[in-house]
Design brief:
The structure is a single chain. This protein is an alpha/beta fold. The protein has two domains: about 210 residues, Rossmann fold (3-Layer(aba) Sandwich); about 35 residues, no CATH class. It contains eight helices and seven strands, in the order E-H-E-H-E-H-E-H-E-H-E-H-H-H-E. A seven-stranded parallel β-sheet has the order 3-2-1-4-5-6-7, with helices on both faces. Helix 3 packs parallel to helix 4. It is globular, with a radius of gyration of 18 Å. The termini are far apart.
Length: about 260
């Protein structure tokens, strides 16, 4: 129950990593604001959480339909959290899209702008409107979703990769600004995680999703694809008081992919 009594906002909550994290946070006592642009997905996720409800525990969960790249929508989900709970103790700034794959010199400009708008502008807007409430309260914890692509080149994904590099920069900058005000900001860097986003990329890259899963699983020294809950567990820790001395960090959740050059000879 490490999050009992805490109000936590999760963007991209209808997605695989977002909802896996919501489930973990809910089990650990958090009250939640689920934010996503997918209305049907949000309804389904709210129903799933309702099925987990323990009558002995009173936990409020609300959902907000919002496009994280839109300033008015961002203000709206932050306002709903404050109106409902009077505070925001934790923020998983997670929403993102993969975008289409193409070489940089052939990449569609409109597609580039769309991916940057969600994956980087959306992260900035979340920080811009959540952090003031945390600073005013003198406490809070934020986790952003970056990627192992934040540390390497990723052929065919110039927009996604550029945005995820930017997320690390946002994390470090915000962490350096608000730490002395009692607020911590970190990011996670998931590797190859079994999500619809990954499936969408594999459909563009390989003859079959199954072949892609096997091939990309070999990137990790653990020799497998990761699961959304394995990201959620780390996010929960970083949002908790147990991570009280962790700030401005990037946590790789990649099965060891970035740790070594594979040599299985």
């Amino acid at each position: 129950m490490r999050h009992e009594g805490k109000a936590i906002v999760v963007t991209g909550a209808a997605g695989a990593i977002g909802f896996a994290t919501c489930e973990i946070l809910y089990r650990e006592g958090a009250e939640l604001v689920l934010v996503d642009v997918d209305e049907a997905g949000l309804r389904a996720r709210m129903d799933q959480l309702a099925g987990m409800r323990d009558p002995a525990r009173r936990q409020t969960v609300i959902s907000m339909l919002a496009d994280v790249s839109d300033e008015a929508d961002t203000k709206s989900y932050v306002k709903s959290a404050m109106d409902t709970f009077g505070r925001i103790d934790g923020f998983f700034n997670n929403a993102g899209i993969e975008g289409r794959l193409a070489p940089t010199h052939e990449y569609d400009v409109a597609e580039f702008d769309k991916v940057l708008s969600v994956n980087l502008r959306g992260m900035f807007l979340g920080l811009r409107y959540v952090l003031p409430h945390m600073v005013a309260a003198g406490k809070g914890a934020v986790v952003l979703t970056a990627s192992i692509g934040s540390e390497r080149g990723l052929a065919g994904a110039c927009a996604y990769n550029a945005a995820k590099h930017g997320v690390v920069g946002l994390t470090r900058t915000a962490a350096s600004e608000v730490a002395q005000k009692g607020v911590r900001v970190n990011c996670v860097e998931p590797g190859v995680i079994e999500t619809p986003l990954l499936v969408g990329m594999l459909e563009q890259m390989f003859d079959s999703v199954e072949a892609g899963m096997r091939k990309l699983g070999e990137v990790a020294t653990l020799n497998r694809v990761g699961q959304p809950r394995e990201v959620g567990d780390v996010v929960s820790f970083l949002l908790s008081d147990e991570a009280s001395y962790v700030n401005g960090a990037r946590w790789e959740i990649d099965g060891g992919a970035l740790a070594t050059i594979r040599n299985d000879v």
